[in-house]
Amino acid sequence: MEKHFSSKVITVNKDSSIFEALQKMQLNLIKRVVITEGTKPLGIVTERDINRFLKEDKTARAINEIPVKHVMEKNIVLITDDLENDFYQCASKMENLKIGSIILVNKNGDLFGIVSRTDLVKAYANLFGGKYLVKEFMSTKIVTCRKSDSLKLVLNLIDQNKISRLVVIDKNGIVVGLISTNLLLSNSDFFTSISNSRDYLIPSNDNVTVSDLLDENLVTINENEDLAKAASLMINYKISGIPVLDSQEKLIGVISKTDIVKAFSLVAAHEQLKLKYKEMY
Questions:
Q1: Which DSSP state fits 219?
Q2: pTM (predicted TM-score)
Q3: Could you tell me if residue 118 is left (phi over 0), alpha (psi between -120 and 50 degrees) or otherwise beta?
Q4: What is the pLDDT of residues 73-95, one digit of tens each?
């Protein structure tokens, strides 16, 4: 599985700062890094973990002064890479534990790879066409913003609603884009110099608005499309969510990588039920 599906593992030492961890996330366009000591995985940290920690931390430390080991999740989920049904196990564990990755280790407990939501979405696109429709798994919780909104407002909405992305609409309610914490991190100029500020997702230029970051290639999908098509679009456009439209081009939901992982976790169980049904009748 590691050769074909596991993402490249990006690591930092346990004594590294969260500045270094965020910098690696930005450079590699990822959401998480594995914390290691030698060849052993000790924990994992995501951008969301860091964001949450900084909101709760009452010290005056800058982010280059905070060791990543103070933020990392220590109860990591490990799978040894010698199991036939690794991918189903990964999808099931991600869905049940509400996590975004599974760490692979060899029989000696050495770090071997990492399986992320992106890996499962790529596999779903290749393996499970025709299984489910987008509308069966999309989220109908939609939080929107306008192109003229400030990035500070965007972050406040994301934090308040505990989500990763906002749908951008015009004055008529027509979808014009999607803005996410990933997009904010990848466009951040914070890491060009060490600062005492903790606002690593907010650009130094206060005049930057949502419209300055939007991609001209708007990606949307109809609710009745194959879920595998949504998965393919996410992989091809390197995005983690897609606005869902009905037959009247009205915004009715968002489909995300998390939703596709949920579908992946159900495929095996549904196929087994179908087999039992056939045997009975």
A1: -
A2: 0.87
A3: alpha
A4: 988 888 876 554 578 888 999 99
Which residue is associated with the tokens 């990588």?
Answer: 257
Structure tokens at 277: 């049904």
- Burial class of 61 by CB neighbour count within 10 A (0 to 12, 13 to 18, 19+): middle
| Sign of the torsion angle spanned by Cα atoms 230, 236, 241, 244 | negative
Q: CB burial class (10 A; 0-12, 13-18, 19+) of residue 29?
A: exposed
Residue 1 binned pLDDT confidence (cut-offs 50, 70, 90): very low
Spatial distance between the Cα atoms of 61 and 51, rounded to a whole number of angstroms? 14
Report which secondary-structure segment, H or E, holds 20: helix 18-28
Give CA–CA dist 21/26, Å, rounded.
Answer: 9
Distance CA 194, CA 191 (A): 7
CA distances from 161 to 128, 156, 165, 272 (A): 31, 9, 10, 37
Contact 13, 4 (CB under 8 A): no
User: Average of pLDDT values for 246-275?
Assistant: 85
CB-CB neighbours of 231 under 10 Å: 28
CB burial of residue 166 (10 Å; 0-12, 13-18, 19+)? buried
Gap between the Cα atoms of 154 and 212, Å rounded: 13
Residue with tokens 């996330």: 25
Query: Which candidate, 225, 227, 262, places its Cα nearest to that of 126?
Result: 227
Residue 238: other Cβ atoms inside 10 A: 10
CA terminus-to-terminus distance, the chain: 36
